[in-house]
Amino acid sequence: MAVLLETTLGDIVIDLYIEERPRCCLNFLKLCKIKYYNYCIFHSVQRNFMVQTGDPTSTGKGGESMFSTLYGDQAKYFEMENSPRIKHKKIGTVSMVNNGSNMHGSQFFFTTAENINYLDGVHTVFGEVSEGMDVLMKVNEAFVDKDNRPYQDIRINHTVILDDPFDDPSGLEVPDRSPEPTKEQLDTGRIGADEEIDDTKGKTMDQVDEMIKSKEAKARAQILEMVGDLPDAEIKPPDDVLFVCKLNPVTTSEDLETIFSRFGTINSCEVIRDQKTGDSLCYAFIEFEKEENCEEAYFKMDNVLIDDRRIHVDFSQSVAKLKQKYNLGNTKAAMDKNRGPGYIVKDRTAKQGNYDLVFDEDEDEPSHKHKKKKEKRNETEESDYRKSKDKHKRKRHRDDSNDEESYTERRRKEDEMGRDRKKNRDRERDSERDRDRDRDRERGRNREGDRGRDRERERDRDRDKRKDRDRDYDRDRGRDKYSSRDRDRKKDYR
């Protein structure tokens, strides 16, 4: 008894344990028969552990058993089968998922590791993979996020029952053909199962290199935008500006303009010079009025001899002027935004309720009444200013006299404090000099005492040596005296 699962990565054949797990196999076969598993995704892929599928909602929390279609929601799940005990020993073992209450619905998983003993008795093993182990390993190697969900959908497209020993229960509705996928089933927010993610497929090496360079250029532009060197990552250098380098230092802007003007009208021509010295930096920018003229000059003027130098011509990659225009435009927009509208509505006659459109602040012809009010206000402000000025002048005079007296007193106190500090420094210097002299004198005494003790020790050593010498001499003389006496005795005896 077997079932064929057609997935987006290939076909997988499952052999079912009909005799050991009849209820699980019946549920699985009839769900395949009513096309319940069509377009289900592998919603959980834990590498080298297991891959899980069988949930039509693609959330990992849905799925119902075949019995719910016959008996309603009360038969949404069925009890697990524990006898006989079958272990998760090998790769490709197929088990029904426990919903947490020792019940099963429609979800099942494939093991991708051996000897997963802690799953035994928790999930019901009802089959094993007989063909398509390489496809299962492809699913196992899929790239997943932190929730173990593949970035690209892997789906069960179709299920084919190769052998079904069970009769269909009464009331089971079997569709004539596979149903079309719903929008909710296809819209998972991930990369589509049939979507090509390899951008280089079907392209030549030149096209691939060009694509890589384009991506690198965009990345560099974004970095320059972030650091503030570019006003916008999408900004492009102008097509009507040439960059000319390897110039002779004597070549001027007028010379280049005269030479390049034969290709068309030139808007600007500038040899870049050092800001401090004014010396030429040997390169220039030439802006043409038309792009066609710029392109013609690019092709004809490269490697041309000017002032005994072979120049190099290329299209400009500088966006300095565009950046200045961009910043200027932003500044003007910000100023306009802060300034507000140039015109406002003012109520001149409150009784009539008529409104006129007038300038906010600047009026070309102010009324006579407004002139009088303005002159009166100016006179009042001027008189107030004079009074305030005289008041501050008198106060400053008083402050100056007080400041002069306080300055003299402060200067006298500072002089006294300076003299006291000088006396203290002199005392400290004299006391330090006395301490140094006493210390040197004490060290001299100690050195004289050490010399005296050394001389006494030397005399004691010399005296002891003389005593030892005299004692040895006396001992030797006594030994010689006794030996001569013995010889005289021997002679007398003979």
SSE topology:
Layout: E1 2-7, E2 10-16, H1 22-33, E3 40-41, E4 44-46, E5 50-53, H2 67-71, E6 78-79, E7 93-96, E8 103-104, E9 108-111, E10 124-131, H3 133-140, E11 155-161, H4 183-186, H5 205-227, E12 241-245, H6 253-260, E13 266-273, E14 280-288, H7 291-301, E15 305-306, E16 309-310, E17 312-315, H8 320-339, E18 343-349, E19 354-359, H9 368-493
Antiparallel strand pairs: 1-2, 1-11, 2-10, 3-11, 4-5, 5-9, 6-8, 7-9, 7-10, 12-14, 12-17, 13-14, 15-16, 18-19
The number of helical segments is 9
List low-pLDDT spans. Answer: 338-366
Q: Report the helical percentage.
A: 40-55%
How would you classify the helix and strand content by structural class? alpha+beta
Shape field: extended
Order of helices and strands: EEHEEEHEEEEEHEHHEHEEHEEEHEEH
Mean pLDDT: 82
Major sheet: size, sense and barrel closure?
9 strands, antiparallel
Oligomer: single chain
Strand order of the largest sheet: 3-11-1-2-10-7-9-5-4
Indicate the proportion of strand residues. 15-25%
- Write down how many β-strands occur, each being a DSSP E stretch of 2 or more residues: 19
Euclidean distance between termini CA atoms: 144 Å
- Evaluate the radius of gyration: 54 Å
